[in-house]
Design goal:
This protein is of the alpha/beta class. Helices cover 41% and strands 17% of the residues. Bound molecules: adenosine-5'-diphosphate and magnesium ion (MG).
Length: 379
C-alpha cells in the first residue's frame, strides 16, 4: 500500500484520486530507498510505472521541506520532448493537491517563453538535455539548488548521443545531490560509464526479469520463407486478428519504411516511428494512436522505447529481436493493463538459433502456428 511509505497526505490524496491502489514492483523496490535519499540505478521495462517511482519520493521531499527562496530543486532529464511533456503531465497529476510548480524546458518550443516560465521559479524542471544546456549557458536556468537529479530513459539518451550533454548538466548540479537513473534495458557499456560518473554508491535495482511478463500474453511463432513471405503474413494477420492497437517491430529503419509502404497499399491505418522521425511526427503518431485514427504502429526498438501507449494488445515481431532482453521489452507492451495480449514472431530459417535461445532465456516455448492460406515451404 502506498500509505505504508509514509508519503505526504496530499500525495496519498492524489494517488487515490488517480485510483493508484497498489504500487507496482518497481515502485515497491525504488520508493523506500529514494525516500531515504539514496542514489538509484533502476532497470525496469516500459510500462512498469517508473515515473511514479521517482516522482512520488521527490514530491514528498519538496513537501516535507519547503524552501521558498530556492531556485529549481529537482531536475528531470528525458531524451525527447514528448517524453518530457508526458512526465510533466504525470508530475502535475501527482502534485494536483500541492502548490508545487513544474516547468518544461525542451527543444522546438519557444525559448523566450521558457525563460519567462523559469523566472517564475518552478521547483521542478523537466527537460531534454540540449535545451537544458542552452538555458544553463545563457543563465536563464541555474542548477545550484538542485537536490535531486533524475535521468529517465537513460539508455535512450545514450542511444541518441546525449551522454555528453547529460554529463555536463550533472557537473553543473551540486555534488551532494541525489541522483536517480532509470532505464528500460540494462543498456550497453556506455550506460555503465555514465552511471558511474553521476551516481554515488547507488543501489542497483534490476526488475527486467523474464517472469515479469504478463501471464495473459500468448506467444506464437510463424515460420516464413523470406521477407516477401513475411510481408504477406503480416498483411494477413492485420486483416484477420482482432485487436485494438498493434505494434509491429522491425530491426531497421529501412525495413520499417518498407512495411509502411506495403501496409499503406493494403489500406491498413499504420504509422512508422523510427529514430529519423522528428519529434512532431513522433508526437503525432502517439496522439493518432490514442485517438484511434491509426491502429498500427510500425517501429524500431530505439523509436519505441519509453512511449506510453496504453492499449496495445497485439505485438508482431516482423524481425526477431536480437536478444532476450529486447524480446521481453517489445512484447511487454502487449496487454499491459492486465488484459489479454498476443505476441507473434515471424521466423525465417536464419532466426531459428536466436529464437531457441530466447525460448531458453524465457524458460518457455512458443506456440507454433500455421496459416493455411500462406503455408511456407519449410516448417
Ligand atoms: P514506465 O515509465 O515504466 O514506462 P509509466 O510510469 O509511464 O511506466 O507508467 C505506465 C502507466 O501505468 C501509466 O499510465 C501510469 O499512470 C500507470 N501506473 C503506474 N503506476 C501505477 C500504479 N501503481 N497503479 C495504477 N497505475 C499505475
Ligand atoms: Mg518512463
Amino acid at each position: 500500500m502506498f500509505a505504508d511509505y509514509g508519503l505526504h497526505e496530499r500525495l496519498l490524496k492524489a494517488l487515490s484520486t488517480l485510483s493508484f491502489k497498489e504500487p507496482t514492483p518497481v515502485q515497491v523496490a525504488a520508493i523506500p530507498p529514494a525516500l531515504e535519499g539514496r542514489d538509484l540505478r533502476v532497470t525496469a521495462k516500459t510500462g512498469s510505472g517508473k515515473t511514479a517511482a521517482f516522482v512520488l519520493p521527490l514530491l514528498h521531499r519538496l513537501l516535507q521541506d519547503s524552501k521558498p527562496q530556492a531556485g529549481a530543486r529537482v531536475l528531470i532529464l528525458l531524451p525527447t520532448r514528448e517524453l518530457a511533456l508526458q512526465t510533466l503531465k504525470e508530475v502535475e497529476r501527482f502534485a494536483q493537491f500541492t502548490f508545487i510548480k513544474a516547468g518544461l524546458v525542451t527543444g522546438g518550443e519557444g525559448y523566450k517563453e521558457q525563460a519567462a516560465a523559469l523566472r517564475k521559479n518552478p521547483e521542478v524542471v523537466i527537460g531534454t538535455p540540449g535545451r537544458v544546456l542552452n538555458h544553463l549557458e545563457t543563465g536563464s536556468l541555474k542548477l545550484g539548488d538542485i537536490e535531486v537529479l533524475v535521468l529517465d530513459e537513460a539508455d535512450r539518451m545514450l542511444d541518441m548521443g546525449l551522454s555528453e550533454d547529460v554529463l555536463k548538466i550533472a557537473k553543473a548540479c551540486p555534488q551532494e545531490r541525489q541522483t536517480l537513473l532509470f532505464s528500460a534495458t540494462a543498456g550497453e557499456r556506455g550506460l555503465g560509464q555514465v552511471a558511474s560518473a553521476v551516481l554515488r554508491d547507488p543501489q542497483l535495482l534490476l526488475l527486467n526479469r523474464r517472469d515479469d511478463l504478463n501471464e495473459n500474453l500468448k506467444q506464437q511463432i510463424i515460420t516464413a520463407d523470406d521477407v516477401q513471405h513475411k510481408e504477406r503474413l503480416l498483411q494477413w494477420l492485420l486483416a484477420h486478428e482482432t485487436f485494438e492497437q498493434a505494434m509491429v517491430f522491425t530491426n531497421t529503419r529501412v525495413q520499417a519504411d518498407r512495411l509502411a509502404g506495403v501496409l499503406r497499399a493494403s489500406a491498413v491505418k499504420a504509422y512508422v516511428l523510427h529514430g529519423e522521425k522528428t519529434q512532431d511526427e513522433r508526437k503525432l503518431a502517439v496522439e493518432r494512436l490514442r485517438q484511434g485514427s491509426i491502429n498500427v504502429l510500425i517501429a524500431t526498438d530505439v523509436a519505441a522505447r519509453g512511449l506510453d501507449i496504453g492499449g496495445v494488445d497485439l505485438v508482431i515481431n516482423f524481425d526477431m529481436p536480437r536478444s532476450g532482453d529486447e524480446y521481453v521489452h517489445r512484447i511487454g507492451r502487449a496487454g499491459r493493463v492486465g488484459q489479454d495480449g498476443l505476441a507473434i514472431s515471424l521466423i525465417c530459417h536464419t532466426d531459428w538459433n536466436l529464437m531457441s535461445s530466447i525460448e531458453r532465456y524465457l524458460k518457455q516455448s512458443f506456440e507454433r502456428r500455421q496459416i493455411k492460406e500462406l503455408q511456407g515451404s519449410y516448417q
